[in-house]
Amino acid sequence: MLLFGLLAVGSAYAAFAPDNATADTSAQSQQIEEGKKLFAVGCASCHGLNAEGGGNGEGKMAGPSLIGVGAAAVDFQVGTGRMPAMQPGAQIPRKTPSYTQAEIEAMAAYVASLAPGPAVPAEEAYDVSKATDEQVTRGGELFRTNCTACHNFAGKGGALPNGRYAPSLMGVSEKHIYEAMLTGPQQMPVFSDQVLQPEDKRDIIAYVKALETQKDPGGFGLGRLGPVSEGLWGWLVGIGLLVGVAVWIGAKGVKAKGAKAE
């Protein structure tokens, strides 16, 4: 009876599943092959023909190995325009992407096929369109604990040693913020699901998006750069006015003494 049951299940699966499975496998293989071709043209000169890293020995930039970085790292780096990089430097800035979304997905599929790594998150993982005030508040607490040391209390970014900097988070898409936490690009640490749970990442994203629409109730925001801009404003305007008033009082006193002497 057991053997008969196994044969029946196997026969039913063979009759109904293979066509769809073959179609899915074929589509995935085609996407990986397309990604491999794009990678060979746009990425191999720095990262190696097989993504092993190290450049090609002809004076090109030596990029790190991409084996095991996962599709999420490719989607972030290429989707934000950081890759392909135009020239080496301490920090690769964000710019307009050089590839379409379909091409980015193909390259991500190719790199993901080389070794296991973080996958591109599903939309529900970073969708904050229905975030509650409680989630935003919780995200703010997590952001101030884990992110403000580099990205500033308002997500405007900040300077780091050796010519590096933490970029501004304003205008960055929800997906790319999630992928950055998941993969740790450049000098950013990796906030894996063991460090920050998926719901923690989503709450942080909700807080960052709330910052984009937050107004400055005190008046001028001064770039929200903290004590640097505030201190500069205080010295130039505050101390400047005091010095001006002191000079005016002094000049007025001299004139008064001159008038009495006459």
Question: Could you characterize the architecture of this molecule?
Answer:
The chain has 262 residues and is mainly α. The chain folds into two domains: 24-120, Orthogonal Bundle (Cytochrome Bc1 Complex, Chain D, domain 2), CATH 1.10.760.10; 121-228, Cytochrome c-like domain (Cytochrome Bc1 Complex, Chain D, domain 2). It contains eleven helices and two strands. It has helices at residues 2-16, 18-42, 44-47, 70-79, 101-114, 123-126, 133-146, 148-151, 174-183, 198-213, 227-261; strands at 158-159, 165-166. It has a two-stranded antiparallel ribbon with strand order 1-2. Strand 1 and strand 2 (165-166) form a beta hairpin. Helix 4 (70-79) packs antiparallel against helix 5 (101-114) and helix 9 crosses helix 10 (198-213). The chain is elongated and about 120 Å long. The protein starts with a helix and ends with a helix. The mean pLDDT is 85.
